[in-house]
Design goal:
Distance between the termini of chain B: 37 Å
Strand order of the largest sheet of chain B: 1-9-8-3-4
Largest sheet of chain A: 7 strands, mixed
Radius of gyration of chain B: 13 Å
Number of strands of chain A: 11
Helix content of chain A: under 10%
Largest sheet of chain B: 5 strands, mixed
Order of helices and strands of chain B: EEEEEEEEE
Structural class of chain B: mainly beta
Shape of chain A: globular
Distance between the termini of chain A: 37 Å
Number of helices of chain B: 0
Oligomer: heterodimer
Number of strands of chain B: 9
Strand content of chain B: over 45%
């Protein structure tokens, strides 16, 4: 079974803090993704990566950065956390960069509260 | 990607089959139909996907109409653990990389 793990299930941070969310997948997938999920807005793509050290902006990259130093690990960084970044953060991975029929597998999510 | 329409909520008796419908009348020939579900406060879980043939796996069956304008996800023997929000997603091979999750169907399995 594909396994995508995220470093924390729940996180509470203060405004202005630098926040690191880590994601690890064990299936040698090339593609990894970071989404955030908010009530009424569905899932929105923040960043994705199709290879080590490669990254592409999604729909809402402002206020975030990412790092992919190893194939299995994709980190999301909130440079200076703000209250509007309170959300559920979901990491996903998939086998091939593009193409229909290629499933994305999601981690359990990190619920971040910024005070 | 084609837009999908799902009923906002459904109930199903435990042990009975749950049939979740999805309309995707604007689907094009290279678009796949995916189903995911999300149990409260967890990440979305992949269930099944298909292009035009019916598909079955250990979790569910996917029935796609001949004209591909609609599909039905079938959970053959619903359990309380199947209570979740179910998302029908249509995605083409030419799409960018993300999945667009709509509002889905909230399925409640009743004892």
């Amino acid at each position: 079974d594909v396994k995508v793990t995220q470093s924390s299930r729940y996180l509470v941070k203060r405004t202005g803090e630098k926040v690191f969310l880590e994601c690890v997948q064990d299936m040698d997938h090339e593609n990894m993704f970071w989404y955030r999920q908010d009530p009424g807005l569905g899932l929105r793509l923040i960043y994705f990566s199709y290879d080590v050290k490669m990254k592409e902006k999604g729909d809402i990259p402002e206020g975030y950065s990412v790092s992919r130093e190893k194939k299995e690990r994709f980190s999301l960084i909130l440079e200076s956390a703000s209250t509007n970044q309170t959300s559920m953060y979901l990491c996903a991975s998939s086998l091939i960069p593009t193409g229909g029929g290629k499933t994305q597998y999601f981690g359990p999510g990190t619920r971040l509260l910024v005070l | 990607d084609a837009k999908t329409t799902q009923p906002p909520s459904m109930d199903c008796a435990e042990g009975r089959a749950a049939n979740l419908p999805c309309n995707h009348s604007t689907i094009s020939g290279n678009e796949y139909v995916y189903w995911y579900r999300q149990i409260h406060s967890q990440g979305p879980q992949y269930i099944i996907h298909g292009l035009k043939n019916n598909e079955t796996n250990e979790m569910a069956s996917l029935i796609i109409t001949e004209d591909r304008k609609s599909s039905t996800l079938i959970l053959p023997h619903a359990t309380l653990r199947d209570t979740a929000v179910y998302y029908c997603i249509v995605r083409s091979s030419n799409t960018g990389n993300q999945f667009y999750f709509g509002t889905g169907t909230s399925l409640t399995v009743i004892p």
